[in-house]
Design a protein that fits this description.
Layout lengths: L2 E3 L8 E3 L1 H6 L19 H8 L20 E3 L5 E3 H9 L18 E2 L1 H38 L2 H17 L1 H9 L2 H7 L7 H11 L6 H7 L2 H13 L2 H14 L13 H11 L8 H11 L3 H9 L2 H8 L5 H14 L3 H8 L4 H8 L5 H17 L1 H10 L2 H10 L4 H15 L4 H7 L8
Antiparallel strand pairs: 1-2, 3-4, 3-5
Helix pairs in contact: 2-4, 4-5, 4-6, 5-6, 5-8, 8-11, 10-11, 10-12, 11-13, 12-13, 13-16, 16-19, 17-19, 18-19, 19-20, 19-22, 21-22
Length: about 450
């Protein structure tokens, strides 16, 4: 029995029967048609899980450009997903969406043959995916057993092989975790672990779902020490992975602040953030710095290693996401007296903060304004004058006149008042001209 199928490539009304479909590769062959087992699989589930890029165009609804699950055919011979064409009709449109012909009959006919073709094609792909997934899981578990038995270069090769599988396949990650792989990898980290082993182990761990006991186990001093060493001395990929692993450990309720109050850790993070050869390390490094800033003792150490002027100098070249993170860190250290002095002692702090106002996002404006407030309150006469000279007053007026958060407007008004104390009214008004602001 022939079936009329529509195509989104402009070839409409093609007659296609089942034998031709299988022969020409629409189904791809390999699965018996009409055997009954295909109906055991839910079509919607298969479409959602597969999302294949090579769906035959005859299976695609011309309206939604998504695979059809309940295809119906109009009197024009064009086929659509039932829900889509009914919505089209409900909008008062009684035409064929593809040809724009007026319909002489607005009834729709279920295209059972096309539905069966679609179901069979997706079933074949689904079974192939399931088989591949099982093969991947079996291979991953086999390598895991090998890792337990071998040492030296053989272990490094096996770890690298498993690492690639874990990166590429979600199902392999789940299988490895379920079979106790996390404890195996954790046991490989210690004071005598080579970086060749450690770097691959960390790469695997950052792709796995670590439970509370696993995170606590990885917080042992010897393991943390190894991770910090690799953060300072490893490849860029290893440094990023070490950063991500520490970030994961910080999610633990019983996380110990001493772990991130480490001179070596913070120095390594700042090297990662300012590494212009590998800019992809800046974002993960700043994300971890932001998390670390919640701990008071770590803030003092961030200041002591000279991170404040380094971050200030990096601000102009940062993308918006990194910029917001860096401003968060600087705002956090500004709550410490030493941090505030470090910010005010850097000649570019005030100009860079003024540049940020109303340029990136409301969040960045809020953070920059908070930093400026902290600095100007240290010595209003000195620092507010510098700020006004580089255009702060005009920027503050922009904030006050904008539709941003009321609290942000209030802080801007307070800072504007503080800055005006050192000037006569007429002179200060001249400083508020927008042409005076840094561009």
């Amino acid at each position: 029995m022939p079936v009329c199928l529509s195509r989104i490539d402009g070839v409409n009304g093609q007659i296609l029967d089942l034998e031709t479909a299988v022969k020409d590769g629409v189904l791809g062959g390999g699965i018996g048609f009409g055997g009954g087992f295909a109906e055991k699989f839910d079509l919607n589930t298969m479409i959602q899980e597969l999302d294949p890029p090579d769906v035959p165009s005859v299976f695609i609804c011309p309206i939604s450009l998504e695979p059809m699950q309940d295809p119906v055919t109009l009197c024009t011979g064009q086929t659509y997903e039932r829900s889509n064409i009914l919505k089209w009709f409900n909008m008062g449109r009684f035409t064929c969406p593809t040809t724009m012909q007026e319909l002489w009959d607005d009834s729709v006919t279920p295209n059972k043959t096309l539905h069966q073709l679609i179901h069979t094609w997706f079933t074949q792909k689904y079974l192939q995916m399931k088989k591949k997934s099982q093969d991947v899981q079996g291979n991953a578990l086999e390598i895991l057993e090998t890792i337990k038995k071998v040492k030296g270069q053989a272990r490094v090769r096996s770890l690298n092989e498993l690492n690639q599988i874990v990166i590429d396949h979600i199902t392999a990650r789940t299988a490895v975790v379920d079979k106790g792989g996390v404890s195996v990898f954790s046991s490989l980290l210690g004071p005598y672990t080579t970086h060749a082993i450690g770097s691959v182990v960390v790469s695997i761990l950052v792709h796995l779902n670590l439970d509370s006991s696993s995170r606590l186990n990885l917080m042992e001093p010897a393991k943390v020490s190894l991770v910090i060493d690799m953060l300072n001395e490893g490849s860029i990929e290893t440094k990023i992975n070490c950063t991500k692993l520490i970030q994961t450990l910080m999610e633990e309720d019983d996380f110990q602040a001493e772990i991130v109050s480490s001179h070596g850790l913070l120095v390594g993070l700042m090297r990662l953030v300012r590494d212009t050869r590998h800019p992809n390390g800046c974002l993960p490094g700043l994300k971890l710095l932001k998390s670390i800033c919640w701990y008071q003792q770590a803030r003092n150490l961030i200041i002591n290693i000279g991170a404040v002027p380094q971050l200030v100098e990096l601000l102009p070249g940062m993308n918006p996401e990194c910029l917001e993170l860096a401003l968060f860190v600087l705002d956090a250290v500004s709550t410490v007296n030493e941090g505030n002095r470090a910010l005010s002692g850097c000649s570019n702090t005030i100009p860079n903060m003024v540049r940020v106002l109303m340029r990136v996002s409301e969040s960045c404006t809020q953070l920059a304004l908070s930093i400026l407030w902290s600095i100007c309150k240290l010595s209003p006469e000195e620092y507010s004058s510098i700020a006004v000279d580089v255009g702060l007053a005009a920027k503050l007026l922009l904030v006050i006149q904008s539709g941003c958060d009321p609290l942000l407007k209030q802080r801007s008004a307070e800072l504007l008042k503080l800055c005006s104390l050192n000037y006569t009214d007429s002179f200060f008004i001249s400083k508020c001209k927008l042409t005076k602001t840094i561009r």
